[in-house]
Amino acid sequence: MTGARIPRFAFTALVFVGVVRCAPTVRQIAAGVVTLTPATVEVGSPELIHVDAPATATLDGEWMGRKLEFFRASGGQGWLALAGVDVEAAAGPTTLRIEEKLADGTRGGVKREVSRTVEIFPAHYRTGLLTVAPRFVSPGPEELKEIEAEVALKDKVFAETAPERLWAGDFRAPVAAAATDSFGTRRMFNGKLASVHKGMDFRARMDTPVHASNSGVVVLAQKLYFEGNCVVIDHGLGLYTISMHLSRMDVHVGERVVKGQLVGLSGATGRVTGPHLHWAVRWGNAYLDPAKLLRMNLSAVR
User: Fold this and answer.
1) How would you classify the pairing of strands 110-121 and 41-42?
2) What pLDDT does residue 28 have?
3) Which residues contact 220 (CB under 8 A, 6 or more apart)?
4) Of 121, 152, 176, which one is at a domain's C-terminal end?
5) How far apart are CA 281 and CA 243, in angstroms?
6) In terms of domains, do 92 and 204 share one?
7) Least C-beta-crowded within 10 Å: which of 29, 196, 232, 279?
8) Residues 195 and 277 in one domain
């Protein structure tokens, strides 16, 4: 966060390997080359991972079974990856692995490896009680077919992402409206536990303009059973934002959008109790707290 002192984590290398022709040499990684922001990692938290490595390095990383995609920091100040912890992830220790390969004029090069335990802390979310039309709690056979087809569609949409970063700078709130603390709430619809709320609700009146929070490409823009009129923007490297329950959509699939561009109007389509905007942030298959993403200082990422 801005103004906060970010502690640096010291890493130790993995064991040395024997020297084999064409194989990289493994060296000990220097202390303080990797930092996480925020330093306290919670369930549902987005994380900016910084690696102090030269521009000539090639980085690979993995955390919680997901590949990390690195990009150059502004001003040549190392490498960055935007990642996060799913809202339904278990608290406890996880392992962050990063491999840095440096060109040293030889055929094999130099490889530095690091393995670090990152503790995930719980986030405490409440339970919400909502009343909706019965068909959204107990769908009939035809509705179930529709829902099944839409699940396959969404799986396909989220299985692909732009291979480069499309966003830059801080993410902005999509609407000029008050937000609730609904992320992570265990939702009870008509007395039945339906799901964990994986987005952020804004108290937007009907037909409030909804804007792109950052630049990217529209990968879905259509009406869905639960989501209503839904727009998904791919910001590259596995990061998406999702706007649901729109009364109108003003973008189409394949369209490049810029930060602040109108994507539609808020509404009450799909499974809702009234007009509002449900806005979600997804990294890979992990849903992250949108409020925390909006509070992150990403102004140096250009």
Assistant:
1) parallel
2) 41
3) 153, 154, 157, 230, 231, 232, 253
4) 121
5) 9
6) no
7) 196
8) yes
Residues 204 and 244 in one domain: yes
CATH number of 200's domain:
2.70.70.10
How many domains are contained in the chain?
2
Question: Are 286 and 200 found together in one domain?
Answer: yes
- Render pLDDT for 213-233 as a digit per residue (tens, 0 to 9): 999 999 999 999 989 999 999
Contacts for 22-28 with beta carbons within 8 Å, 24 or more apart?
22/107, 22/108, 23/108, 24/101, 24/108, 24/109, 24/110, 24/111, 25/108, 25/109, 25/110, 25/111, 26/111, 26/112, 26/113, 27/110, 27/111, 27/112, 28/112
Distance CA 48, CA 89 (A): 18
Residue showing tokens 């909804």? 210
259 located within any domain = yes
Which pLDDT belongs to residue 36? 94
Bridge-partner residues for 46, per DSSP? 84
pLDDT at 77: 79
pLDDT at residue number 210: 98
Q: Which domain holds residue 87?
A: 25-121
Quick one: tokens of 195? 């799901």
Interstrand relation of 277-283 and 200-202 (parallel, antiparallel or unpaired): antiparallel
Q: Of 121, 145, 173, which one is at a domain's C-terminal end?
A: 121
% helix / strand / coil in the chain, to the nearest 5?
10, 40, 50
Amino acid at position 3, single letter? G
In the predicted model, residues of the chain with pLDDT beneath 50 are: 1-31, 105-107, 130-131, 189-193
